[in-house]
Specification:
By secondary structure, this protein is of the alpha/beta class. The protein has 16 helices and 14 strands. Helix 9 packs across helix 14. The radius of gyration is 22 Å and the shape is globular.
Length: 429
């Protein structure tokens, strides 16, 4: 039986993949590309190249059977970044020629662009003969509608205008990138997605594209985990966040305030945020909160995969509070660990976790409902253990590395053949 030929695949991403050590880069919190790359190397003989943004000039190199093509961002200086933030400008097509050079050097059978958030997706305008598939992470255009979610009040606007001008500037950059994203999706032929939300949004924003459902591989630290019921004297709530308003940090403050008033004991640990973050200062100021610890909220900053997995194992409940998400890896990691989970019913969350089957969903921006869900889980923990177990089983099937890799390779092959067929028909005309 003839062995199936493995395609040459070039990834374009914001991540340097498994070359972080070689490049001496700190990549805490960005492990989904390396996780997929590691699985691809383990279960496939696929020939892989990876082009990515880098902070300085660096020649292409081969490492572990992967060719890497670092692309230095033009004008990527502190002065230029500050100028961009103040003026709302963003890099547009300056780096596209360098990505095209990587394509020419590697000569892929297919190009896989990870995400629509960065302008490198504009290669779809310049590449005709090679199929380009774009995988959906978030969708900036839709996220922009939730950018100030839960905090859109006159007091907050005054805070932004007076003390935190970067939030206005960052929002302008976000909107500009959303415009670029619309251009990318408008010219995209093939899409990888994984939720009902991104499929339906793409149906509107990229009606010409062929949509393929492809799951993700999660960081390896989380697969061996198996959460067990705890007996913490004071229950530990755990949330992974980031310095963006749409991540719903104000939900934590509002919910913690309600829990304290009701005399419900808890400690709320938040990864991904630290006290000096401008967003934390902004939300505290808007809420009139001087000290988060008075509300039993503790910020842990950026954590490694190992540190995150340790915190999951010693927490009682994982809570997602975002106002919009597609398929957040932090939620998937908590499900892999088999934890009791409460999540905001937004975006693609309901494709990952069904209410009362694998956890509880609450109405976005409703701290009273969230507080009620927390109280319910703490009062009757045994009732939610079957849900945690169901989440564990479901997520391990969904994120099985070998299954994901084989499915993705099948989709690559199908896209390559479809592109060949379409081009031949077009040539015949």
């Amino acid at each position: 039986m003839e062995e199936k030929k493995q395609p040459r695949v070039l990834w374009i991403a914001n991540s340097c993949g498994l070359s972080a050590g070689h490049l001496k880069m700190n990549v805490a919190g960005s492990g989904w590309v390396p996780a997929l790359q590691e699985a691809l190397g383990q279960f496939s003989g696929c020939q892989l190249g990876l082009a990515f943004y880098f902070d300085r000039e660096f020649a292409p190199f081969e490492l572990g059977k992967t060719w890497y093509y670092p692309v230095k961002k033009l004008g990527n200086t502190k002065k230029k970044r500050l100028f961009n933030r103040l003026t709302g400008r963003t890099e547009y097509e300056e780096n596209i020629p360098e990505f095209l050079k990587a394509i020419e050097a590697f000569k892929p059978d297919i190009i896989h662009v990870h995400g629509t958030e960065a302008p490198f997706g504009l290669i779809v305008k310049h590449v005709r003969s090679i199929p380009v598939v774009i995988s959906i992470q978030g969708i900036l255009t839709a996220y922009a509608k939730k950018y100030f979610s839960g905090m859109n009040m006159p007091g907050l606007i005054r805070q932004i205008q007076s003390g935190y001008p970067f939030f206005r500037a960052d929002y302008k950059i976000w909107l500009k990138r959303a415009e670029i994203e619309q251009e990318i999706l408008g010219k995209t032929e093939f899409i990888f997605g994984r939720t009902d939300w991104d499929r339906r949004v793409c149906r509107v924003m990229a009606p010409q594209a062929h949509y393929h459902h492809v799951e993700e591989v999660i960081r390896k630290e989380f697969y061996p985990l198996k959460w067990k019921p705890l007996r913490n004297e004071i229950p530990v709530l755990f949330t992974t966040s980031s310095p963006s308003l749409y991540k719903g940090f104000e939900n934590i403050i509002d919910t913690a305030t309600i829990l304290l008033k009701k005399g419900i004991p808890f400690t709320w640990m938040v990864a991904g945020l630290k006290e000096k973050d401008a967003l934390v200062k902004l939300v505290r100021s808007a809420k009139g909160i001087d000290d988060l610890q008075v509300l039993n909220i503790h910020l842990l900053g950026t954590l490694s995969g190992k540190e995150l997995s340790d915190w999951l194992m010693k927490s009682d409940i994982y809570i997602q509070v975002s106002h919009i998400e597609n398929s957040p890896n932090s939620l998937c990691e908590a499900m892999l660990a088999g934890m009791p989970i409460i999540a905001s019913s937004v975006g693609g969350t309901s494709s990952l976790l069904q209410d009362k089957l694998q956890g509880l969903l609450f109405q976005d921006g409703d701290p009273y409902m969230l507080a009620g869900c927390i109280d319910e889980m703490l009062r009757e923990p045994e009732r939610f253990l079957p849900m945690a177990e169901a989440a564990y089983r479901l997520s391990h099937r969904r994120h099985d590395p070998e299954t994901v890799v084989n499915d993705m390779l099948d989709k690559y092959s199908a896209i390559i053949e479809r592109k060949k067929s379409a081009d031949s028909h077009s040539f015949g005309k």
